[in-house]
Amino acid sequence: MKKISLLAALLLAYVANAQDVPEKYRPQFHFSPKAHWMNDPNGMLFHNGTYHLFYQYYPEAKIWGPMHWGHATSKDMVHWKEQPIALYPDNLGYIFSGSAVADVNNTSGFGKDGKTPLVAIFTHHNPVLEKQKTGRHEYQSIAYSLDDGVTWTKYSGNPVLPNPGITDFRDPKVRWYEPQKKWIMTLATKDRITFYSSPDLKSWSKESEFGADAGAHGGVWECPDLLPLTHEGKQVWLLIVNINPGGPNKGSAGQYFLGDFDGKTFTAYSKETKWLDWGADNYAAVTFSNTGNRSLLMGWMSNWQYANQVPTDPWRSANTISRELGLKTVGKELYLTSVPARELESIKGEGYSKKNLTVKAPVDLAPKGGNASGLFRLDLKTATAGDFELVLSNKTGNELLIGYDKASNQYYIDRSKSGKIDFEAGFGQKHTAPRLSKDGKIALTLVADVASVELFADGGLTVMTDIFFADTPLSDLTIKSAKGIQVEEVQYHVLKPSIE
Ligand code: FRU
Question: Superkingdom of this entry's organism (predicted)?
Fold first, then answer.
């Protein structure tokens, strides 16, 4: 008996190790560069039928280093094609995070022969000045493209916004403010947001500040975004402020405020923080520009707590799927919602739909014959808001648990037994998020790739994104409920790989 279990253990170890090969944890429908380091998404822009994604990229190693802007393009935010590097570091510094706009009125004067200039607005981070501790090593610069984003020319008058003496002075997100026909820059300035405006993207004047006395301050404020949404016919402004560390489940995370913006000042309805995503792995999330009345958000699917240690090879990090933003009132409180952008449908494969399932002992939710890849989308609706747990697992004994705990009214993702967790002390933990909805039924969507899950609960009121590193794909899926629960409807669809 002993011999058999020893043999079995050896065999399992062998299977697990045999999988320890390059590309083992490669996301199959999330964007990741083919090789080397990536962090924040930058300059996300829709132009002439193409979505552009730029990103913090270090093309020489798998760890953070002198930053470039990598580039990828897509027709649907699901199938991405990696492009040549767009921006290289120069004598003004590394190319840190920022945004891009289509300057359709040619306010910048960069346009030629009727061609719309695309203008990137980014932070130059100067490592020499940083060493000298001048406190003025970050400033804002611009570059433009006259060939729809393929090649970029840096402006000779850089920097366009010099540093006034603020150590963390970065990540400009720029949008056109039509009522006053001017550009608004939302900039992360250490522990607050500073708004600037410009007629031409080249000269900037300070408008106001927000946040020194609002929201979470467990870390430095980074990567903001400001955009209007519509709720019941009324305009509501969304201010996203990423923060690192100080997230609700440790490390990096995104908080948001809702309020009014008049071209000068942002006035929040409440100074309390709300969280965009309660999981550990959605950072630096901002929206695409130039997408009309759709607001589409994408983040970096990692956390500074362990981003440089995750066991992937030969690349490091991926992005979340694209999410469509909306607003929803619960009681007297207004919240942001995010759900998978409909373009994800383009990779929907085989599936099934079942009604009225009684769950007590574990019920198998994987399709007949299994789903070896472990890539799927699950949509589930319960008859009551009671305890249940989804178990994603494999034959090697890894388990990722996703559930709802009624007593604490919390959703959770527990990755403590999900596979490789030992590369960082805090990685293998259970993350929790409050259920905000008061609806008597729970509706959730779960999107699973090889190394990530994205949970959208109650129409996107509570969202959690977590990465994991299972020894083999988590292709089994069961649902259980110690107290028993009735599932009104469940839909399961295999998702097809979309990477190059
Ligand atoms: C956020 C961030 C930004 C900065 C960039 C550097 O993850 O720290 O504030 O611009 O990454 O790579």
Answer: Bacteria
Tell me which of 38, 55, 56, 95 to substitute to probe ligand 1's pocket, judged by most ligand atoms within 8 Å of the beta carbon.
56
In CATH, the number for domain 344-495 is 2.60.120.560
Q: Residue type for 434, please?
A: P
Question: What is the Cα–Cα distance from 167 to 401, expressed in whole angstroms?
Answer: 41
pLDDT (tens digit per residue) in 370-399: 899 999 999 999 999 999 999 999 999 999
Is the CB of residue 158 below 6 angstroms from any atom belonging to ligand 1?
Answer: no
Give me the pLDDT at residue 7, please: 53
**Nearest-angstrom CA–CA distance, 48 and 44:** 13
Token pair, residue 172, equals 């400009």
CA 414 → CA 267, 360, 388, 477, distances in Å? 37, 20, 13, 15
Ligand 1 proximity of 56 Cβ (cutoff 6 Å): yes
Q: Is the CB of 96 under 6 A from ligand 1?
A: yes
Domain segments of the chain: what residues? Answer: 30-340, 344-495
- At residue 454, the 3 state secondary structure works out as strand
Q: What is the dihedral of CA 150, 151, 157, 159, to 10 degrees?
A: 60
Cβ-proximal residues to 484 (8 Å cutoff; 6+ apart), any chain: 358, 359, 360, 386
Pick the CATH number of 30-340 from 3.10.520.10, 2.115.10.20, 3.40.50.280, 1.10.10.10: 2.115.10.20
Which residue CA neighbors atom 6 of ligand 1 most closely? 96
Nearest CA to 360 among 244, 269, 484?
484
Query: What 3-state DSSP class applies to 258?
Result: strand
Give the residue numbers annotated as catalytic, written as ranges.
Answer: 40
Q: Same fold for the domain at 30-340 and the one at 344-495?
A: no
For residue 15, pLDDT beyond 80: no
The per-residue pLDDT for 16 is: 44
Is the pLDDT score of 165 beyond 90?
yes
3-state secondary structure of 430: strand
Residue 419 backbone zone (phi > 0: left; psi -120 to 50: alpha; other: beta): left
CA-to-CA distance for 260 and 219, rounded, in angstroms?
25
The CB density around residue 292, as the number of other CB atoms within 10 Å, is 6
Ligand 1 neighbour 154 (Cβ under 6 A): no
Q: 129 CA distance to ligand 1 centroid (A)?
A: 17
Six-digit token pair at 485? 């629960």
- Assess whether the C-beta atom of 284 lies below 6 angstroms from ligand 1: yes
pTM over 0.85: yes
Pocket test for ligand 1, best of 67, 168, 171, 319 (most atoms within 8 A of CB): 171
